[in-house]
Each structure stands twice: as structure tokens, then as C-alpha cells.
Amino acid sequence: MLTRPERCWTLTEDDILALEIGAAILGTGGGGNPYIGKLRARQALRDGHKLRVVSLQALPDDAKVVSLGGIGAPLVSFERIKEGREGLRCVRALEERLGFKADAIACEEIGGQNAMEPLIVASLAGIPVVDCDGMGRAFPEMQMSTYSIYGHRSTPSVMCDPHGNVVIFDHAISEKWHERMARACVIAQGGASTLASAPMSGAFLKRFAVPNSYTRAVALGRAVMEARRNHADPIAAICEMEQGKLIHTGKIVDLKRHLRGGFVTGEAIIEGFDAYQGETGSVLIQNENLVFKRDGQVEVVVPDLIIILDIDGGEAITTEMLRYGQRVAVLAVPCHPLLRTSEALEVIGPRGFGFDDIVYRPFGADVVRNQRAGDE
Amino acid sequence: MLTRPERCWTLTEDDILALEIGAAILGTGGGGNPYIGKLRARQALRDGHKLRVVSLQALPDDAKVVSLGGIGAPLVSFERIKEGREGLRCVRALEERLGFKADAIACEEIGGQNAMEPLIVASLAGIPVVDCDGMGRAFPEMQMSTYSIYGHRSTPSVMCDPHGNVVIFDHAISEKWHERMARACVIAQGGASTLASAPMSGAFLKRFAVPNSYTRAVALGRAVMEARRNHADPIAAICEMEQGKLIHTGKIVDLKRHLRGGFVTGEAIIEGFDAYQGETGSVLIQNENLVFKRDGQVEVVVPDLIIILDIDGGEAITTEMLRYGQRVAVLAVPCHPLLRTSEALEVIGPRGFGFDDIVYRPFGADVVRNQRAGDE
């Protein structure tokens, strides 16, 4: 069905390395470390599979596209390597349940380790991945994708674990209920499974997916690699690629972090230095970096991207890897417009994470205007 | 397919009342209170549905029989009344998943409230319930049925909750894994759902089901009602019906009870009176009454039935209703031979409940021989 190979792009090992870096940055502190996924994707390549990415434009309107990703605790999937064919089993069981054939695979979230899983599954199934995702970053729950927000019902879905168990969430009365049941089930399965959702049409994806996700993440990774090679500043390279801004540099002087309801929550206090000397930044965390405050004033809020990087190498630091004394840079990147509509903000705005007293103001225009000279 | 109506028996409102009493006694402290189920079964009758029970003998070998029951915390299902058609939705979804038509419904456990659910579902579906069950009593987990023990694979199964969510456990690598995943999911669904398992054949049930469960529970209830009406001893009536023995009478003088892993666990200490003056009985509990000791010596062990009754009225007391100061009678009833094989004891013997130091000795022969005159 996908007959325009010129719109298909085949990933190389180098692309996978770049994707690992880009996906980690777009994870905004969450989404898990893509390292193991990189190894698995590379192995798929070396085994002779093709990692093909097809552009949204090249996707026929009536294509049937299955989105999938890992579900569970990123740390578990880092320590207990997947059996490897969970995702393919999900797709096959879904095809059998609904009596269709998947034309392509879509990515749920490009941030973190879930950037890799769709590529691996698609390569095993011999179909391409669509160059898009449902978040343009990482979020902790399934209903937080543009697919769900803009009306796709993700059930029937199939969840497979490394042991061989197969669960079909045949009907959920809401996307939130789907998340709730799947979350309970993945914990029973050991904490790291794979879930494939009911197929979407090409036409739906063209309207409601965040486009060019793989292109973007690979280019981002390449820019960082390039800057490192040239002894240039990787943080400046990221800002340029992502229309982002460096909003703070400093040292982590206090870190509150606890597990609550399966999430890492807390706050990192970052005492400024260089251009930010005398200013105290703080980042509120729930798996991802959600709110950036300067001297107690909210400056950047989810769904805009708040990225914490090691100040020297420009590596993304996931929330569970934050440590007292780390010297970090904080970047803000505007989220995709699909995440800024009122429907989207209901789900992934500050209220969606329990920050009832914070009003979302899009990062970009005014912040850039008020920026001080020292920022760049 | 079930063409021999002479082997079908249609329950009356009176039968339902008797079943409530009998099922509570066979619950051996667990299985939940059948009161709400009784009301729902009676309502089905009054709505014009038929509650038909077909004997195992009358069941064609190739009949397709779906076993089902409530899953979750008995207390929840007592406080939050079911929506009512969960079980029917389970059967319909299972039929659709597997492409078959159910000929009859089987009961998973005749003890407690799960005696009622199959009747209600069958009546709504217009098919009979088979006069059998998978336990001949109550047990806390799904893999503890003779169906599972003797080789039936209960997946694909369907779980429905009162909200309208439908989950298919399409494949579990073992019966224990099925239980584990379903248990996690039912908690997420609010703690009381209904689950229907993959169909069994009539031939399988004839070999491996505990037979005559409804006949037995209704007769047991009728015997108690009759004794009460005639101011006779309902406890003696139960013992006679069930080839049981009164093994202790006394007052509860100590009660340890805590929730652990979703189960009620603990111990009731019963200081003897009457013929048992000077003897201390104790009952170890995990949802059901599992072990009876006299002065520290094990006398009766699961899977044999240990039943605690109010000494005056002969009402069964569920483990969560045990109270300090209650005056109780303890009865032992031999379990069905299908529960005494080595395969069965692996799952539902003392080791299946973590009593690794207790060896199962069948209650009956020797206990009866050593019985003292005061027992009857």
C-alpha cells in the first residue's frame, strides 16, 4: 500500500546513534533512557532488517497505522531487557482481533526510549514507521497523546509482556480508564510491557499527529554530535535546532524527589551562576520536568519543553539521574501547536498534572522579548 | 442443544432462599455474602427470566460451557451493587472473540456469593446453569478450581466491570499468571468485576467438575430452614446433610486479623465450652478458614471444609464478620475427592496457602474413629 519509496527513508546505524541523543533531549527528563532501545534497533539492522521511516505526506489516507510503545517503569525496562518480539506479538494479536493488516507503525512518544520501540517492531513486521508521534516529547500517561486528545479511541489495544502473556483491552469507557487498567496490568506483568493501540487512518494522522518526529530527533542528535566533534557548544546547537532558549545555568543545591503513585515527583533547586548569578531556578518534576520557576515566579510550564542538560557535554539528564551538585543548563523549547489548543491543555496543561494554580502561558514570544543580553 | 428438559430443574424463589443459606455455609468463611446475589436472582425471576439448572448427566459431551463468577473483594461487591449485566457482557464478548455460542453456564465456586452470579447470567442469556462447580466450596484465587487443576486453560477470558470496560485476557502462560493479571486489573476497575473463562466441553465437566453443587447447596439450605422451623438443631442438620462433624464449640476470646496482599489473614482463638470445656480451638484464616487446631495440634486442614457457625441460629459467619465474644460452633466437612488428589493438593492443599509445615491428612476416617462421645 505504501508505494512511494522516494518518501521513505532508511535509517543507518549512525542515524540510530543520533536518534538516541535527540530522543533523550526531547524526553524532557522522562520517557526513559533510549540506550537499550538503541542496541536493539542496531541489532535489528545488523540482522538484516530495514528501519524504514515514511513521511506523513506519503501516507495514503486509508492506510491503517498502529501506534505502539513500551508501557511501565522506564527503570525496569532498563534493567530487564525485553524479550524482543513483544511489540510484534501486540501487532499480530491486534490484527487478528480486528481482522485487518497494519500498513505502518506510529510512534506514541518521540521523547525517551519509546522513540526506538516502533522502529524495531516495524522492522520485524517489514513495514515502515511513520515520521510522526503523539507528543513531540514525552508524557507519563497514555491519554496524553494528540491521538487520544483529538478523538482517536485507543481500544481495542493489546499488551504483551516478555513472559508471553497477552491482554486485550477490548473496550475502555474513556482514554483515562484505558490508562488506569493498562497501568495496573503492566505492574502485575513485572513493570515493563509493550502496548499497541487500535489502528488510526492515514488521514487522521495527517491532521492530528505531531509531524516529522524522527527527522527532528535524528537532526537534533546529529547537531549535538557535530558540535561535540567541532568543540563547539552543543547547548547552543540544541537551541538553534529547536527554537529553544537557554533559560538558566547553575548548580543543583537541593533536590526533593519521591515516588508517589508510580511516578517520580519532586523539585530541583538550581542556584544560578554565570549570567544567572544571584537567581534561583527551580524545576517541578512528575516523571518529566513540568514547571520552571525563577525566584518563585513561574516562567515555563508544561506542555512546553523544559530540558535539563549537563552543562559541559550537553547530555540530557533524566529526572531520576538528577544529583546534588550537578552543574546544569535549563532549556525551554516551545511545544508543537497541537499541544496548545484548549482540548490539549485540558489533558496536558498544568491542570492535567495537578498544578491547579498555574496558568499556562505559551513559552516563546514574550519570554524572548524580555530576555536579557546574557542569555545567548 | 440441551434437549432433555426432564433433566432440567427450574429454581423457585424458595430455592433461592435456601441457596443463600447453603452457599454461605459452603463458603467456609470466604466467598462473600450471597445476600445481594439472592436479591438479584430473585429480581431476575420476578422479571420473568427462568433460573434453570441442568444436571451433568444431561449435558451433551460436546456442549460448550462457560464458567464465570465475580472477581474482586467480596466486601466491595456487597457495598457497590453490580450494574447487573456484567456477566452477560462477558459471555457475549467471549463468544465474539472465539466464534462460538455458549450452551450453558458453569459455576466457579458454589461457596459464597459466586453461587448466584452464574444463575443470573444464564437466566439473562436464556440458557441453563450446570449443576456443578469447580471447588465444592470457596477458594480465594481463580487457579484453585478443579477446572484449572485438571488441565482446562481458562484463557481467553473476559472481564467486565460495572462501568462498561471490557478486558480480554487473551493468553496467560499459566493459570497463576491469569489470576495475577486479572487481580491487578479488577483492583483498577474498582474492586468487583465479573470474569468468564474460555469454554469447557460437557465431557470435560463430567470428569472434572464437582457434581451436584446446586442440588447440594439448596438441600443444605432447606435442611437448615426446616430445622429452624421445627425448633430442631440446624447444626446437627448440616452435619447430617454434609457427612460433617461438629469438632468444637466455644467462645471467641482472641482474634488477630489483618489485610495482607488483598487477603484477610489471621487467627481466631476459640475457648471451648460444653463438651469442649478446657480445650482451646484455633482457626487460621486466609479469606477462608484454612486450618483448625486443638490445643496447638492440627486437626483439620484445607481443602477439607472448616465451617464456623453461630451456635444458636446456625448461620455461617464469614471471616470478616468474626467478632470477639461470639459463641460459635466449628464444623468439619470432608471435601470432594477431586480436591484430594496430589495434583489438587499442590494447588489447594496447605502448601498452596503457604503452610509449608502442615501435612494434609484427609478429614474423615481417623478423626471420626478418635471422636469422643460428647461430639454428637
UniProtKB/TrEMBL annotation, chains A, B:
Residues 174-362 form the S-Me-THD-like C-terminal domain. InterPro entries: S-Me-THD-like_C (IPR048350), S-Me-THD_C_sf (IPR024071), S-Me-THD_N (IPR010318), S-Me-THD_N_sf (IPR027479). Transmembrane segments: none annotated. Signal peptide: none annotated. Residues 15-170 form the S-Me-THD N-terminal domain. This is DUF917 domain-containing protein. It comes from Oricola thermophila. The lineage of its organism: Bacteria, Pseudomonadati, Pseudomonadota, Alphaproteobacteria, Hyphomicrobiales.
